[in-house]
Amino acid sequence: MVEVCAKKFVVIVDESKLVPGLGVSGAMPVEITPFCWQHTMRKIAALPSLAGCRAEPRRDASGALYVTDNHNYIVDLYFEKPIADADRAAKELQDTVGVVEHGLFLGMASVVVIAGAQKIYEKHR
Fold it and tell me: Which spans of this chain does the record mark as coiled coil (predicted)?
């Protein structure tokens, strides 16, 4: 929510956060409503832009479905290859009934400051 209200959104990371493409560095979370959650999870996994992803419901330490502060569930998406078209994937997720939010935060950062082992550099939008 902060980035939506900010005039300029600056992200600061170290080089370990750089990846060859979106989706391959671990789970990408998608928040979904509890109603018909299994159907929603199957619909997400079948989206053309997410072809080849594996969708799994997030679970807590006891094995129960993880529940967010807003009483929704999280589906974690795992990819073998980077997402080919992140804008399309974000749109398809956004248009899927039952999806509350997703982990593709595109076009928000004004600048990314990256701390490397030898230097600090910036990427501007």
Answer: none
Q: What is the pTM of this model?
A: 0.82
Domain-located, residue 65: yes
Angle CA(86)–CA(53)–CA(34) in degrees, nearest 5? 95
Predicted confidence (pLDDT) per residue in 67-124, tens digit: 999 999 999 999 988 899 999 999 999 999 999 999 888 888 889 999 988 899 888 8
What whole-number distance in Å separates Cα of residue 40 and Cα of residue 12?
Answer: 34
CATH number for the domain harbouring residue 90? 3.30.70.260
Question: Which amino acid, one-letter code, is at 124?
Answer: H
Query: CA 95: distance to chain centroid?
Result: 15
| 3-state SS assignment for residue 43 | helix
Residues 6+ apart with CB under 8 A from 102: 28, 29, 30, 31, 90, 93, 94
Give tens-digit pLDDT for 54-70.
999 999 999 999 999 99
Query: Beta partners for 122?
Result: 113
Is 119 domain-assigned?
A: no
Number of domains in the chain: 1
